[in-house]
Amino acid sequence: MAANATNAHRNRLSTEQSPYLLQHASNPVDWMPWGNEAFERARQLDRPVFLSIGYATCHWCHVMERESFEHAAVADVLNNHFVAVKVDREERPDVDALYMDVCQAMTGRGGWPLTVLTDAQRRPFFAGTYFPREGHHGRMGLLDLLDRVLHVWHNDRPRIAEQCASIAEALRNQAAASAAAEVPHDILATAVEAHQRLYDAQYGGFGSAPKFPSAHHLLLLMQSSTVLEGGTDIMDMVTSTLDAMRAGGLYDHVGGGFHRYSTDRQWFMPHFEKMLYDQAMLMLAYSEAYRKTADPLYDNVVADVAAYVRCEMTSPRGAFYSAQDADTEGVEGSTYVWTLDEFSQVVGPTAPRLAALFGMTTEGTMHDEATGNATGTNILACAPAALRTLVSDADWLAVRPRLMERRTLRPQPLTDDKVLCDWNGLMIGALARASVVFANGEYQRMAVNAYRDVEASAKVDGRWYHGYRTNVLNASAIVDDHAALAWAATELALATGQEQWLDAARGHLDIIVDQFMDDDGAIYVTARHITDVLARQRSDHDGAYPSGASVAAMAMTTYGRAYADALWIERARRIVSALGQPLTASPYGYAMMIHAWHDIQQAIGDPWCRDGVCQRPLSEQIIPSNHERI
Protein backbone atom coordinates (compact mmCIF):
# COMPACT_ATOMS: atom_id res chain seq x y z
CA MET A 1 0.00 0.00 0.00
CA ALA A 2 1.23 3.50 -0.77
CA ALA A 3 2.18 5.80 2.08
CA ASN A 4 -0.92 7.91 1.56
CA ALA A 5 -4.54 6.92 1.03
CA THR A 6 -6.13 6.94 -2.38
CA ASN A 7 -9.74 7.52 -3.27
CA ALA A 8 -9.94 3.85 -4.32
CA HIS A 9 -10.25 2.90 -0.65
CA ARG A 10 -13.57 3.70 0.99
CA ASN A 11 -14.28 2.74 4.59
CA ARG A 12 -17.57 2.60 6.46
CA LEU A 13 -17.69 6.33 7.01
CA SER A 14 -18.53 6.82 3.33
CA THR A 15 -22.25 6.46 4.03
CA GLU A 16 -22.28 9.02 6.86
CA GLN A 17 -23.50 12.61 6.54
CA SER A 18 -21.06 14.39 8.85
CA PRO A 19 -18.49 16.42 6.88
CA TYR A 20 -15.88 15.39 9.44
CA LEU A 21 -16.57 11.68 9.04
CA LEU A 22 -16.66 12.04 5.27
CA GLN A 23 -13.22 13.68 5.39
CA HIS A 24 -11.94 10.34 6.72
CA ALA A 25 -13.95 8.10 4.41
CA SER A 26 -10.96 7.54 2.08
CA ASN A 27 -8.42 6.88 4.83
CA PRO A 28 -6.81 3.44 4.65
CA VAL A 29 -7.92 3.04 8.27
CA ASP A 30 -11.08 0.92 8.42
CA TRP A 31 -12.99 3.46 10.48
CA MET A 32 -16.41 2.63 11.88
CA PRO A 33 -18.94 5.19 13.12
CA TRP A 34 -19.95 5.30 16.77
CA GLY A 35 -22.54 2.64 17.49
CA ASN A 36 -23.26 -0.82 18.86
CA GLU A 37 -21.83 -2.54 15.77
CA ALA A 38 -18.34 -1.20 16.40
CA PHE A 39 -18.25 -2.25 20.05
CA GLU A 40 -19.77 -5.64 19.29
CA ARG A 41 -16.99 -6.15 16.73
CA ALA A 42 -14.43 -5.27 19.40
CA ARG A 43 -15.99 -7.83 21.75
CA GLN A 44 -16.03 -10.59 19.15
CA LEU A 45 -12.45 -9.97 18.03
CA ASP A 46 -11.24 -9.29 21.59
CA ARG A 47 -9.63 -6.01 20.53
CA PRO A 48 -9.27 -2.60 22.14
CA VAL A 49 -11.18 0.29 20.56
CA PHE A 50 -9.19 3.20 19.15
CA LEU A 51 -11.60 6.12 19.47
CA SER A 52 -10.75 9.35 17.63
CA ILE A 53 -12.95 12.41 18.15
CA GLY A 54 -12.72 15.68 16.24
CA TYR A 55 -14.63 18.01 13.95
CA ALA A 56 -14.54 19.16 10.35
CA THR A 57 -12.93 22.57 10.84
CA CYS A 58 -10.25 21.48 13.34
CA HIS A 59 -6.69 22.32 12.21
CA TRP A 60 -4.89 19.72 14.34
CA CYS A 61 -7.42 17.07 13.34
CA HIS A 62 -6.34 17.70 9.74
CA VAL A 63 -2.68 17.49 10.75
CA MET A 64 -3.13 14.14 12.51
CA GLU A 65 -5.07 12.79 9.55
CA ARG A 66 -2.32 13.74 7.08
CA GLU A 67 0.47 12.45 9.32
CA SER A 68 -1.13 9.27 10.60
CA PHE A 69 -4.53 8.23 9.34
CA GLU A 70 -3.52 8.50 5.68
CA HIS A 71 -0.36 6.50 6.33
CA ALA A 72 -0.07 2.77 5.57
CA ALA A 73 1.92 1.84 8.68
CA VAL A 74 -0.66 3.35 11.04
CA ALA A 75 -3.55 1.87 9.08
CA ASP A 76 -2.00 -1.61 9.20
CA VAL A 77 -1.70 -1.52 12.99
CA LEU A 78 -5.18 -0.11 13.55
CA ASN A 79 -6.87 -2.44 11.05
CA ASN A 80 -5.17 -5.61 12.30
CA HIS A 81 -5.17 -5.04 16.05
CA PHE A 82 -7.85 -2.48 16.97
CA VAL A 83 -11.39 -1.46 16.12
CA ALA A 84 -11.08 2.13 14.93
CA VAL A 85 -14.04 4.43 15.64
CA LYS A 86 -14.49 8.02 14.45
CA VAL A 87 -16.83 10.50 16.15
CA ASP A 88 -17.79 14.00 15.06
CA ARG A 89 -17.86 15.84 18.38
CA GLU A 90 -20.44 18.27 17.02
CA GLU A 91 -22.81 15.43 16.14
CA ARG A 92 -22.26 13.66 19.47
CA PRO A 93 -21.28 16.30 22.03
CA ASP A 94 -22.39 13.94 24.78
CA VAL A 95 -19.86 11.30 23.73
CA ASP A 96 -17.16 13.93 23.34
CA ALA A 97 -17.85 15.54 26.73
CA LEU A 98 -17.64 12.21 28.54
CA TYR A 99 -14.26 11.24 27.13
CA MET A 100 -12.93 14.78 27.28
CA ASP A 101 -13.53 14.73 31.03
CA VAL A 102 -11.48 11.54 31.18
CA CYS A 103 -8.68 13.11 29.14
CA GLN A 104 -8.56 16.20 31.34
CA ALA A 105 -8.55 14.08 34.49
CA MET A 106 -5.75 11.83 33.19
CA THR A 107 -3.53 14.46 31.53
CA GLY A 108 -4.56 17.83 32.99
CA ARG A 109 -5.50 19.17 29.56
CA GLY A 110 -7.83 18.55 26.66
CA GLY A 111 -8.41 19.46 23.06
CA TRP A 112 -8.96 18.01 19.64
CA PRO A 113 -8.30 15.62 18.10
CA LEU A 114 -9.19 13.60 21.17
CA THR A 115 -7.57 10.16 21.25
CA VAL A 116 -9.08 7.53 23.55
CA LEU A 117 -8.55 3.79 24.06
CA THR A 118 -11.52 1.83 25.40
CA ASP A 119 -12.63 -1.75 25.88
CA ALA A 120 -15.66 -3.26 24.20
CA GLN A 121 -17.91 -1.90 26.97
CA ARG A 122 -16.98 1.70 26.02
CA ARG A 123 -14.89 2.00 29.20
CA PRO A 124 -11.76 4.14 28.66
CA PHE A 125 -8.32 3.19 29.92
CA PHE A 126 -6.19 5.81 28.12
CA ALA A 127 -6.84 9.32 26.79
CA GLY A 128 -4.79 12.02 25.07
CA THR A 129 -5.08 14.53 22.27
CA TYR A 130 -2.85 15.01 19.22
CA PHE A 131 -0.05 12.51 18.58
CA PRO A 132 2.48 12.79 15.75
CA ARG A 133 3.03 9.59 13.82
CA GLU A 134 6.60 9.20 15.08
CA GLY A 135 7.83 10.32 18.49
CA HIS A 136 10.23 13.25 18.70
CA HIS A 137 11.60 15.74 21.25
CA GLY A 138 10.34 13.59 24.09
CA ARG A 139 6.79 13.44 22.70
CA MET A 140 5.31 9.98 22.24
CA GLY A 141 4.36 9.08 18.68
CA LEU A 142 1.14 7.35 17.73
CA LEU A 143 2.91 4.19 16.53
CA ASP A 144 4.74 4.00 19.87
CA LEU A 145 1.48 4.44 21.75
CA LEU A 146 -0.29 1.73 19.79
CA ASP A 147 2.60 -0.68 20.33
CA ARG A 148 2.59 -0.07 24.09
CA VAL A 149 -1.19 -0.46 24.32
CA LEU A 150 -1.05 -3.78 22.49
CA HIS A 151 1.73 -5.02 24.75
CA VAL A 152 -0.31 -4.30 27.88
CA TRP A 153 -3.53 -5.60 26.25
CA HIS A 154 -1.97 -8.98 25.56
CA ASN A 155 0.30 -9.29 28.58
CA ASP A 156 -1.40 -7.48 31.45
CA ARG A 157 -5.13 -7.51 30.75
CA PRO A 158 -6.11 -7.39 34.45
CA ARG A 159 -4.35 -4.04 34.70
CA ILE A 160 -6.46 -2.65 31.85
CA ALA A 161 -9.65 -4.15 33.27
CA GLU A 162 -8.95 -2.56 36.63
CA GLN A 163 -8.31 0.83 35.00
CA CYS A 164 -11.52 0.58 32.95
CA ALA A 165 -13.61 -0.35 35.97
CA SER A 166 -12.11 2.44 38.07
CA ILE A 167 -12.68 5.16 35.47
CA ALA A 168 -16.22 3.98 34.68
CA GLU A 169 -17.12 4.00 38.38
CA ALA A 170 -15.65 7.47 38.79
CA LEU A 171 -17.72 8.76 35.87
CA ARG A 172 -20.93 7.31 37.27
CA ASN A 173 -20.18 8.62 40.77
CA GLN A 174 -19.43 12.05 39.35
CA ALA A 175 -22.80 12.11 37.60
CA ALA A 176 -24.62 11.00 40.76
CA ALA A 177 -22.80 13.27 43.19
CA SER A 178 -24.78 16.15 44.64
CA ALA A 179 -23.26 19.60 44.28
CA ALA A 180 -26.20 21.44 45.78
CA ALA A 181 -25.51 24.32 48.15
CA GLU A 182 -26.93 27.67 49.08
CA VAL A 183 -25.76 30.27 46.58
CA PRO A 184 -24.13 33.12 48.53
CA HIS A 185 -25.88 36.48 48.40
CA ASP A 186 -22.65 38.12 47.24
CA ILE A 187 -21.94 35.69 44.40
CA LEU A 188 -22.11 38.46 41.81
CA ALA A 189 -19.38 40.44 43.57
CA THR A 190 -17.32 37.28 44.04
CA ALA A 191 -17.58 36.50 40.33
CA VAL A 192 -16.52 40.02 39.38
CA GLU A 193 -13.51 39.78 41.69
CA ALA A 194 -12.52 36.51 40.00
CA HIS A 195 -12.66 38.24 36.62
CA GLN A 196 -10.69 41.22 37.91
CA ARG A 197 -7.88 38.92 39.05
CA LEU A 198 -7.61 37.39 35.59
CA TYR A 199 -8.16 40.58 33.61
CA ASP A 200 -5.34 41.65 31.27
CA ALA A 201 -5.27 45.42 31.77
CA GLN A 202 -2.79 45.91 28.92
CA TYR A 203 -4.51 44.00 26.12
CA GLY A 204 -8.00 43.24 27.39
CA GLY A 205 -9.49 39.82 27.90
CA PHE A 206 -8.74 37.36 30.67
CA GLY A 207 -5.62 35.35 31.33
CA SER A 208 -2.77 35.00 28.89
CA ALA A 209 -2.32 33.11 25.62
CA PRO A 210 -4.31 31.56 24.14
CA LYS A 211 -7.24 33.92 24.57
CA PHE A 212 -10.82 32.97 23.83
CA PRO A 213 -13.67 35.43 23.25
CA SER A 214 -16.02 33.71 25.79
CA ALA A 215 -18.63 36.42 25.51
CA HIS A 216 -20.68 35.16 28.47
CA HIS A 217 -18.00 36.55 30.80
CA LEU A 218 -18.57 40.00 29.31
CA LEU A 219 -22.35 39.62 29.60
CA LEU A 220 -22.00 38.85 33.31
CA LEU A 221 -19.77 41.88 33.85
CA MET A 222 -22.20 44.16 32.03
CA GLN A 223 -25.01 42.87 34.21
CA SER A 224 -22.88 43.37 37.32
CA SER A 225 -21.91 46.92 36.39
CA THR A 226 -25.47 48.10 36.95
CA VAL A 227 -25.84 46.74 40.49
CA LEU A 228 -22.36 46.77 42.06
CA GLU A 229 -20.12 49.58 43.17
CA GLY A 230 -17.36 50.40 40.72
CA GLY A 231 -19.63 49.89 37.74
CA THR A 232 -17.54 52.20 35.56
CA ASP A 233 -14.40 50.17 36.20
CA ILE A 234 -16.28 46.97 35.46
CA MET A 235 -17.54 48.38 32.16
CA ASP A 236 -14.01 49.49 31.29
CA MET A 237 -12.96 45.82 31.38
CA VAL A 238 -15.80 45.00 29.00
CA THR A 239 -15.30 47.80 26.49
CA SER A 240 -11.52 47.44 26.42
CA THR A 241 -11.92 43.74 25.65
CA LEU A 242 -14.59 44.29 23.01
CA ASP A 243 -12.45 46.94 21.31
CA ALA A 244 -9.31 44.80 21.40
CA MET A 245 -11.07 41.76 19.92
CA ARG A 246 -12.59 43.82 17.11
CA ALA A 247 -9.29 45.56 16.33
CA GLY A 248 -7.05 42.50 16.32
CA GLY A 249 -6.58 39.60 13.97
CA LEU A 250 -9.28 37.70 15.86
CA TYR A 251 -11.68 39.66 13.65
CA ASP A 252 -11.89 39.18 9.89
CA HIS A 253 -11.54 42.81 8.81
CA VAL A 254 -12.36 42.05 5.18
CA GLY A 255 -15.11 39.42 5.35
CA GLY A 256 -16.57 40.00 8.80
CA GLY A 257 -17.05 37.57 11.65
CA PHE A 258 -14.77 36.40 14.45
CA HIS A 259 -12.19 33.64 14.31
CA ARG A 260 -12.13 31.00 17.02
CA TYR A 261 -9.46 32.35 19.38
CA SER A 262 -6.20 34.26 19.57
CA THR A 263 -3.01 32.23 19.92
CA ASP A 264 -1.30 35.20 21.58
CA ARG A 265 -2.05 37.60 24.39
CA GLN A 266 -2.51 40.59 22.06
CA TRP A 267 -5.52 39.24 20.08
CA PHE A 268 -3.28 39.43 17.00
CA MET A 269 -2.65 35.92 15.66
CA PRO A 270 -5.92 34.00 15.34
CA HIS A 271 -6.74 30.34 15.06
CA PHE A 272 -8.62 30.91 11.84
CA GLU A 273 -11.69 28.69 12.08
CA LYS A 274 -15.03 30.46 12.52
CA MET A 275 -17.72 28.93 14.71
CA LEU A 276 -21.41 29.79 14.64
CA TYR A 277 -21.63 29.88 18.42
CA ASP A 278 -18.91 32.52 18.63
CA GLN A 279 -20.74 34.74 16.16
CA ALA A 280 -23.92 34.32 18.22
CA MET A 281 -22.47 35.01 21.64
CA LEU A 282 -20.35 37.93 20.46
CA MET A 283 -23.33 39.47 18.67
CA LEU A 284 -25.18 39.24 21.97
CA ALA A 285 -22.29 40.86 23.86
CA TYR A 286 -21.83 43.73 21.41
CA SER A 287 -25.61 44.32 21.33
CA GLU A 288 -25.71 44.60 25.10
CA ALA A 289 -22.64 46.84 25.07
CA TYR A 290 -24.42 49.14 22.61
CA ARG A 291 -27.49 49.15 24.83
CA LYS A 292 -25.33 50.35 27.72
CA THR A 293 -23.00 52.75 25.89
CA ALA A 294 -24.70 53.77 22.61
CA ASP A 295 -21.23 53.47 21.02
CA PRO A 296 -21.77 53.29 17.23
CA LEU A 297 -18.76 50.98 16.91
CA TYR A 298 -20.78 48.20 18.52
CA ASP A 299 -23.65 48.76 16.13
CA ASN A 300 -21.09 48.43 13.32
CA VAL A 301 -19.78 45.14 14.72
CA VAL A 302 -23.24 43.59 15.07
CA ALA A 303 -24.18 44.63 11.53
CA ASP A 304 -20.92 43.21 10.20
CA VAL A 305 -21.36 39.87 11.98
CA ALA A 306 -24.98 39.62 10.83
CA ALA A 307 -23.90 40.28 7.24
CA TYR A 308 -21.20 37.62 7.47
CA VAL A 309 -23.62 35.05 8.90
CA ARG A 310 -26.23 35.90 6.27
CA CYS A 311 -23.76 35.57 3.37
CA GLU A 312 -21.54 32.68 4.50
CA MET A 313 -23.35 30.68 7.17
CA THR A 314 -27.03 30.64 6.19
CA SER A 315 -28.67 27.74 4.37
CA PRO A 316 -31.10 28.36 1.50
CA ARG A 317 -34.01 27.66 3.86
CA GLY A 318 -32.79 29.96 6.62
CA ALA A 319 -31.05 27.82 9.24
CA PHE A 320 -27.40 28.42 10.07
CA TYR A 321 -24.39 26.28 9.25
CA SER A 322 -21.94 25.20 11.95
CA ALA A 323 -18.48 26.46 11.07
CA GLN A 324 -15.83 27.38 8.55
CA ASP A 325 -12.45 25.65 8.48
CA ALA A 326 -9.18 27.07 9.75
CA ASP A 327 -7.33 25.50 6.81
CA THR A 328 -7.51 26.00 3.07
CA GLU A 329 -5.89 23.22 1.05
CA GLY A 330 -3.93 22.16 4.11
CA VAL A 331 -2.61 25.61 5.04
CA GLU A 332 -4.09 27.42 8.02
CA GLY A 333 -5.34 30.93 7.33
CA SER A 334 -4.18 31.16 3.72
CA THR A 335 -7.55 32.53 2.57
CA TYR A 336 -7.35 35.47 4.97
CA VAL A 337 -3.77 36.83 4.83
CA TRP A 338 -2.18 39.28 2.38
CA THR A 339 1.20 40.04 0.94
CA LEU A 340 1.92 43.74 0.92
CA ASP A 341 2.22 43.66 -2.89
CA GLU A 342 -1.20 42.08 -3.42
CA PHE A 343 -2.83 44.39 -0.90
CA SER A 344 -1.30 47.43 -2.62
CA GLN A 345 -2.35 46.20 -6.04
CA VAL A 346 -5.99 45.89 -5.00
CA VAL A 347 -6.17 49.01 -2.83
CA GLY A 348 -4.34 51.45 -5.08
CA PRO A 349 -3.14 54.93 -4.05
CA THR A 350 -4.36 54.73 -0.45
CA ALA A 351 -2.48 51.47 0.17
CA PRO A 352 0.50 52.95 2.06
CA ARG A 353 -1.73 54.70 4.61
CA LEU A 354 -4.10 51.76 5.08
CA ALA A 355 -1.24 49.25 5.21
CA ALA A 356 0.33 51.34 7.95
CA LEU A 357 -2.95 51.27 9.89
CA PHE A 358 -2.81 47.47 9.74
CA GLY A 359 0.90 47.31 10.52
CA MET A 360 1.67 45.45 7.29
CA THR A 361 5.28 44.79 6.21
CA THR A 362 7.05 43.29 3.24
CA GLU A 363 8.37 40.45 5.41
CA GLY A 364 4.89 39.78 6.72
CA THR A 365 3.41 39.70 10.21
CA MET A 366 2.36 36.05 10.07
CA HIS A 367 4.98 33.51 11.15
CA ASP A 368 5.35 29.83 10.43
CA GLU A 369 4.17 27.84 13.44
CA ALA A 370 7.05 25.35 13.28
CA THR A 371 10.02 27.60 12.45
CA GLY A 372 8.86 31.01 13.66
CA ASN A 373 10.00 32.54 10.38
CA ALA A 374 8.00 35.33 8.72
CA THR A 375 5.95 34.01 5.82
CA GLY A 376 5.71 37.18 3.73
CA THR A 377 1.99 37.44 4.45
CA ASN A 378 0.16 39.80 6.78
CA ILE A 379 -2.70 39.39 9.20
CA LEU A 380 -4.95 42.43 9.08
CA ALA A 381 -5.07 43.93 12.58
CA CYS A 382 -4.99 47.46 13.89
CA ALA A 383 -4.37 49.07 17.25
CA PRO A 384 -7.53 49.49 19.37
CA ALA A 385 -6.85 53.24 19.49
CA ALA A 386 -7.13 53.38 15.68
CA LEU A 387 -10.22 51.19 15.41
CA ARG A 388 -12.92 53.86 15.39
CA THR A 389 -10.97 55.81 12.80
CA LEU A 390 -10.66 52.73 10.63
CA VAL A 391 -14.29 51.62 10.61
CA SER A 392 -15.46 55.06 9.47
CA ASP A 393 -12.54 55.72 7.09
CA ALA A 394 -13.91 56.50 3.63
CA ASP A 395 -10.90 54.99 1.88
CA TRP A 396 -11.19 51.75 3.84
CA LEU A 397 -14.94 51.52 3.25
CA ALA A 398 -14.32 51.96 -0.47
CA VAL A 399 -11.60 49.31 -0.82
CA ARG A 400 -12.95 46.67 1.53
CA PRO A 401 -15.40 45.27 -1.08
CA ARG A 402 -12.57 45.12 -3.61
CA LEU A 403 -10.41 43.15 -1.19
CA MET A 404 -13.30 40.77 -0.58
CA GLU A 405 -13.82 40.32 -4.31
CA ARG A 406 -10.13 39.48 -4.76
CA ARG A 407 -10.25 37.10 -1.81
CA THR A 408 -13.14 35.14 -3.28
CA LEU A 409 -10.89 34.20 -6.20
CA ARG A 410 -8.67 32.24 -3.81
CA PRO A 411 -9.41 28.68 -2.68
CA GLN A 412 -11.94 28.88 0.13
CA PRO A 413 -12.08 27.02 3.44
CA LEU A 414 -14.62 24.26 3.93
CA THR A 415 -17.97 25.33 5.31
CA ASP A 416 -19.35 22.65 7.62
CA ASP A 417 -22.93 22.82 6.45
CA LYS A 418 -24.58 20.66 9.07
CA VAL A 419 -27.25 22.41 11.13
CA LEU A 420 -27.08 22.01 14.92
CA CYS A 421 -30.09 22.93 17.03
CA ASP A 422 -28.17 24.27 20.03
CA TRP A 423 -25.89 26.56 18.06
CA ASN A 424 -28.81 27.71 15.91
CA GLY A 425 -30.73 28.51 19.07
CA LEU A 426 -27.92 30.74 20.29
CA MET A 427 -27.75 32.53 16.93
CA ILE A 428 -31.53 32.95 16.73
CA GLY A 429 -31.69 34.37 20.25
CA ALA A 430 -28.82 36.78 19.58
CA LEU A 431 -30.44 38.02 16.38
CA ALA A 432 -33.79 38.46 18.13
CA ARG A 433 -32.13 40.46 20.92
CA ALA A 434 -30.24 42.57 18.38
CA SER A 435 -33.46 43.22 16.46
CA VAL A 436 -34.84 44.94 19.57
CA VAL A 437 -31.66 46.80 20.48
CA PHE A 438 -31.18 48.19 16.98
CA ALA A 439 -34.84 48.21 15.83
CA ASN A 440 -33.72 46.11 12.87
CA GLY A 441 -36.35 44.07 11.08
CA GLU A 442 -33.79 42.12 9.01
CA TYR A 443 -32.29 40.60 12.16
CA GLN A 444 -35.74 39.56 13.26
CA ARG A 445 -36.54 38.00 9.89
CA MET A 446 -33.29 36.02 9.97
CA ALA A 447 -34.15 34.74 13.44
CA VAL A 448 -37.72 33.75 12.57
CA ASN A 449 -36.73 32.03 9.33
CA ALA A 450 -34.01 30.04 11.06
CA TYR A 451 -36.27 28.87 13.89
CA ARG A 452 -38.96 27.78 11.45
CA ASP A 453 -36.46 25.85 9.34
CA VAL A 454 -34.94 24.13 12.36
CA GLU A 455 -38.36 23.17 13.70
CA ALA A 456 -39.50 21.86 10.31
CA SER A 457 -36.33 19.82 9.83
CA ALA A 458 -35.20 18.64 13.27
CA LYS A 459 -38.57 17.72 14.77
CA VAL A 460 -40.13 14.49 13.49
CA ASP A 461 -43.29 13.01 14.98
CA GLY A 462 -42.88 15.14 18.07
CA ARG A 463 -39.28 14.06 18.66
CA TRP A 464 -36.40 16.52 18.36
CA TYR A 465 -32.98 15.68 16.98
CA HIS A 466 -29.64 17.33 17.63
CA GLY A 467 -29.18 18.40 14.04
CA TYR A 468 -29.25 17.47 10.39
CA ARG A 469 -27.46 17.70 7.08
CA THR A 470 -28.89 17.16 3.58
CA ASN A 471 -32.22 16.32 5.25
CA VAL A 472 -30.64 13.44 7.18
CA LEU A 473 -31.05 13.63 10.96
CA ASN A 474 -28.31 12.70 13.41
CA ALA A 475 -28.57 11.83 17.11
CA SER A 476 -31.38 12.60 19.53
CA ALA A 477 -31.51 16.12 20.93
CA ILE A 478 -29.46 16.88 24.02
CA VAL A 479 -30.39 19.36 26.73
CA ASP A 480 -28.37 22.11 25.02
CA ASP A 481 -30.69 21.89 22.00
CA HIS A 482 -33.89 22.31 23.97
CA ALA A 483 -32.42 24.97 26.25
CA ALA A 484 -31.03 27.10 23.40
CA LEU A 485 -34.20 26.84 21.34
CA ALA A 486 -36.34 27.64 24.40
CA TRP A 487 -34.21 30.72 25.10
CA ALA A 488 -34.35 31.69 21.41
CA ALA A 489 -38.14 31.42 21.46
CA THR A 490 -38.39 33.65 24.55
CA GLU A 491 -36.19 36.23 22.80
CA LEU A 492 -38.45 36.04 19.75
CA ALA A 493 -41.44 36.58 22.02
CA LEU A 494 -39.81 39.70 23.45
CA ALA A 495 -38.90 40.90 19.96
CA THR A 496 -42.25 40.31 18.26
CA GLY A 497 -44.77 40.53 21.09
CA GLN A 498 -46.29 37.30 19.75
CA GLU A 499 -47.41 34.73 22.29
CA GLN A 500 -46.84 31.84 19.86
CA TRP A 501 -43.13 32.02 20.66
CA LEU A 502 -43.81 31.50 24.36
CA ASP A 503 -45.78 28.41 23.41
CA ALA A 504 -42.75 27.19 21.47
CA ALA A 505 -40.51 27.87 24.46
CA ARG A 506 -42.90 26.00 26.76
CA GLY A 507 -42.65 22.92 24.55
CA HIS A 508 -38.89 22.76 25.00
CA LEU A 509 -39.05 23.56 28.72
CA ASP A 510 -41.52 20.76 29.33
CA ILE A 511 -39.16 18.33 27.60
CA ILE A 512 -36.25 19.53 29.74
CA VAL A 513 -38.21 18.92 32.94
CA ASP A 514 -39.49 15.54 31.75
CA GLN A 515 -36.34 14.08 30.17
CA PHE A 516 -33.28 15.95 31.47
CA MET A 517 -33.97 17.35 34.95
CA ASP A 518 -34.04 15.66 38.35
CA ASP A 519 -36.25 16.79 41.22
CA ASP A 520 -33.26 18.43 42.91
CA GLY A 521 -32.62 20.60 39.85
CA ALA A 522 -29.71 18.64 38.37
CA ILE A 523 -29.65 18.87 34.57
CA TYR A 524 -28.19 16.06 32.46
CA VAL A 525 -26.75 16.35 28.97
CA THR A 526 -28.59 13.33 27.57
CA ALA A 527 -32.23 12.32 27.90
CA ARG A 528 -33.28 9.50 30.20
CA HIS A 529 -33.78 7.04 27.34
CA ILE A 530 -30.27 7.36 25.84
CA THR A 531 -28.25 4.20 26.50
CA ASP A 532 -25.21 4.33 24.18
CA VAL A 533 -23.03 6.41 26.51
CA LEU A 534 -21.16 5.06 29.49
CA ALA A 535 -22.73 7.52 31.96
CA ARG A 536 -25.21 10.38 31.87
CA GLN A 537 -23.20 13.49 32.54
CA ARG A 538 -24.45 16.58 34.26
CA SER A 539 -24.62 19.81 32.35
CA ASP A 540 -22.76 22.26 34.55
CA HIS A 541 -19.92 24.70 33.85
CA ASP A 542 -19.91 27.20 31.02
CA GLY A 543 -17.22 26.43 28.47
CA ALA A 544 -16.70 27.96 25.03
CA TYR A 545 -20.38 28.85 25.18
CA PRO A 546 -22.96 28.63 27.99
CA SER A 547 -23.97 25.22 29.29
CA GLY A 548 -27.40 23.78 28.62
CA ALA A 549 -28.19 24.15 32.32
CA SER A 550 -27.37 27.88 32.28
CA VAL A 551 -29.42 28.56 29.19
CA ALA A 552 -32.32 26.48 30.52
CA ALA A 553 -32.33 28.54 33.72
CA MET A 554 -32.41 31.77 31.71
CA ALA A 555 -35.24 30.54 29.49
CA MET A 556 -37.30 29.32 32.46
CA THR A 557 -36.86 32.65 34.21
CA THR A 558 -37.98 34.68 31.20
CA TYR A 559 -40.93 32.38 30.65
CA GLY A 560 -41.89 32.52 34.32
CA ARG A 561 -41.79 36.32 34.37
CA ALA A 562 -43.75 36.58 31.13
CA TYR A 563 -46.62 34.56 32.56
CA ALA A 564 -46.03 35.51 36.19
CA ASP A 565 -45.64 31.82 36.88
CA ALA A 566 -43.57 31.22 40.02
CA LEU A 567 -43.23 27.49 39.26
CA TRP A 568 -40.84 28.11 36.38
CA ILE A 569 -38.85 30.62 38.37
CA GLU A 570 -38.53 28.07 41.17
CA ARG A 571 -37.35 25.44 38.70
CA ALA A 572 -34.72 27.85 37.41
CA ARG A 573 -33.64 28.53 41.00
CA ARG A 574 -33.22 24.79 41.63
CA ILE A 575 -31.02 24.41 38.55
CA VAL A 576 -28.56 26.97 39.87
CA SER A 577 -28.74 25.75 43.47
CA ALA A 578 -27.96 22.21 42.28
CA LEU A 579 -24.55 23.56 41.27
CA GLY A 580 -24.08 25.77 44.29
CA GLN A 581 -20.83 24.16 45.47
CA PRO A 582 -18.73 24.44 42.29
CA LEU A 583 -20.33 27.74 41.39
CA THR A 584 -19.23 29.21 44.72
CA ALA A 585 -15.76 27.64 44.54
CA SER A 586 -15.03 28.57 40.90
CA PRO A 587 -17.31 31.42 39.85
CA TYR A 588 -15.22 32.21 36.76
CA GLY A 589 -16.31 28.88 35.23
CA TYR A 590 -20.01 29.60 35.78
CA ALA A 591 -20.41 33.08 34.32
CA MET A 592 -23.71 32.49 32.53
CA MET A 593 -25.11 30.48 35.43
CA ILE A 594 -24.42 33.40 37.77
CA HIS A 595 -25.96 35.73 35.19
CA ALA A 596 -29.07 33.54 35.28
CA TRP A 597 -29.00 33.56 39.10
CA HIS A 598 -29.18 37.34 39.18
CA ASP A 599 -32.17 37.26 36.80
CA ILE A 600 -33.83 34.69 39.07
CA GLN A 601 -33.35 36.89 42.13
CA GLN A 602 -34.92 39.82 40.29
CA ALA A 603 -37.87 37.62 39.32
CA ILE A 604 -38.32 36.41 42.89
CA GLY A 605 -38.37 40.04 43.97
CA ASP A 606 -41.08 40.91 41.44
CA PRO A 607 -43.83 42.76 43.32
CA TRP A 608 -46.44 40.58 41.62
CA CYS A 609 -45.06 37.52 43.43
CA ARG A 610 -46.37 36.91 46.92
CA ASP A 611 -45.56 33.84 49.01
CA GLY A 612 -44.25 31.99 45.97
CA VAL A 613 -47.35 32.68 43.88
CA CYS A 614 -47.38 35.20 41.05
CA GLN A 615 -50.61 37.08 40.44
CA ARG A 616 -49.78 39.17 37.37
CA PRO A 617 -52.58 38.92 34.79
CA LEU A 618 -51.59 38.02 31.22
CA SER A 619 -52.83 41.39 30.02
CA GLU A 620 -49.99 42.94 31.97
CA GLN A 621 -47.26 40.46 31.03
CA ILE A 622 -43.80 41.87 30.50
CA ILE A 623 -43.61 41.15 26.77
CA PRO A 624 -43.45 44.46 24.86
CA SER A 625 -45.08 44.93 21.48
CA ASN A 626 -42.08 45.79 19.36
CA HIS A 627 -43.35 44.40 16.07
CA GLU A 628 -45.05 47.64 15.07
CA ARG A 629 -41.81 49.63 15.04
CA ILE A 630 -39.62 46.92 13.49
N- to C-terminal distance: 63 Å
Contiguous runs where pLDDT drops below 50 for at least 5 residues = 1-7, 610-614, 621-630
Radius of gyration: 25 Å
Mean of all residue-level pLDDT scores: 92
Structural summary, described in words:
The chain has 630 residues and is an alpha+beta fold. The chain has three domains: 12-176, 3-Layer(aba) Sandwich (Glutaredoxin), CATH 3.40.30; 187-248 and 421-620, Alpha/alpha barrel (Glycosyltransferase), CATH 1.50.10.20; 336-411, no CATH class. 49% of the residues lie in helices and 8% in strands. The strands form seven sheets. Strands 1-3-2-4-5 form a five-stranded mixed beta sheet, sandwiched between helices. A three-stranded antiparallel beta sheet has the order 8-9-12. Strand 14 (459-460) and strand 15 form a beta hairpin. The longest helix has 20 residues, at 157-176. The protein is globular and about 70 Å long.
Entry summary:
The protein is an alpha+beta fold and 630 residues long.
